[in-house]
Prior knowledge:
Strand order of the largest sheet: 5-4-3-6-11-8-12
Largest sheet: 7 strands, mixed
Number of helices: 10
Shape: globular
Distance between the termini: 16 Å
Number of strands: 13
Order of helices and strands: HEEEHEHEHEEHEEEEHHEEHHH
Radius of gyration: 23 Å
Oligomer: single chain
Strand content: 5-15%
Amino acid sequence: MARKLKACLVSVTLVLLTVYWLSGNEIGIQTNSSPVYYVHGSSTPSTSARNMSFNNHFHILTMLSVFNGKRWPKYNEFTDQDLVDRDKEYLSTLRANLENKVVKEVHLFYMEDDDLKLVKSQNFSALNKLRPVKWHRRLHMADFFLYASKNLVNKSVIAINGDILIGKGFDLIDTERLRDERVMFSLTRHNIIRDGKRCTPLNLCTESYYRASHDTHVFRLAEPLNETIILDKLDYPINMWGAENAMHWTFKNVLNFTVRNPCRVLVTHHNHCSKVHGPSLEKVDEHKYSIYYLPNKGWTQKKVLQSYTPFENSLAYRKRKKSGFLAFFYSFLLRWT
């Protein structure tokens, strides 16, 4: 009787271990046989999931942020040439993202018709991918997710700041897993090299300079998000200090998403060499352009720390609770053999 029970347990455990191994690609584990590749800006190799490449086509959501001869409030300290230089960066970023092979469409939010005319006058080769969206305000974090909920359910989306270039790695994303496992990749940027010099002084996707800054958000919704939650938690400008931290906290703790930052694999670049910058962090107590000063929202340093999403060297998705169960059976088997 004891031998039969032992044989039965061995058989069950072997079956479970086989299922575990065969489904390894479904639960985010990695094996020694997985291929290794290098990404720009990283001296360490990253291990991919077993499926190396997907035929991904993303919908980019971004704001058209050009001065176009106008001066915005609080930008009076910059010269006309400074503003022109900044416009060139925004336009060159838009062109590069339109021409990127993984981009299906760019949903370009704009407020002024003259600004859209400026874009169309550039004669970009991939203007057929442009989807202009007339908007009533400069983008808020909530706008990304409400627009996607109404127009892009079950579509692969990249919500992005206007000066961020899509780089390598986006064909490696299993967007079905993003959808099915409720995962968002929120990425920290790399710097950019222009004329042999690094324009942005810090490469934030490093151990030394990671500062909880995330400019690119990759997701695929299975269903519309709760509009009430989104408006209550995320209705503030996307460039406000702490904007992405409050978003991370909301997605993790309220919407039950896994938020990850594989910026060593999914590479983005910050196209900002000009002198023009918005309200500085050093003067945040003066200009109060921060989530901490939003009335009746309760954003605190504790919540910001809870939103901490450091970078990762490999692609991973939601972790499932299979391994503990199988570990129990494996240890039980060892005791019997």
